[in-house]
Design goal:
Layout: H1 14-21, E1 34-37, E2 40-42, E3 45-46, E4 52-55, H2 57-66, H3 68-75, H4 79-94
Antiparallel strand pairs: 1-4, 2-3
């Protein structure tokens, strides 16, 4: 029987990442941010753009130093809650429900 390789599409959206970069940092509230991809699609690949959260460059570096779970505990932040809030705000903006 032939092996079936699972194909996983990583969703990319330049518009959504631009929206994320306009949001305040989910930890500090500062406005100079980068988009942190909270999941990975595979070895050295970024996960879906729709699973990104805004972090300051300094906090983003710290996250990569201590790891995502430790970072969330240290700053008492739940990225899944942040992602839900960000996606909701993005959809509301697209639909004109600001």
């Amino acid at each position: 029987m032939p092996r079936i390789q699972q194909v996983t599409k990583t969703h990319r959206s330049a518009r959504y990442l631009a929206f994320i970069r306009q949001q305040p940092c989910v930890v500090s509230g500062f406005c100079t941010v980068v988009a942190h991809h909270t999941s990975k699609a595979g070895m050295a690949l970024k996960g879906s753009d729709y699973l990104a959260v805004p972090l300051t460059p300094e906090l983003h570096s710290e996250l990569h130093t201590i790891g995502q779970e430790s970072f969330q505990r240290k700053y008492n932040v739940d990225f899944s809650v942040c992602i839900t809030r960000l996606l909701s705000a993005y959809v509301n903006r697209l639909e004109g429900n600001n």
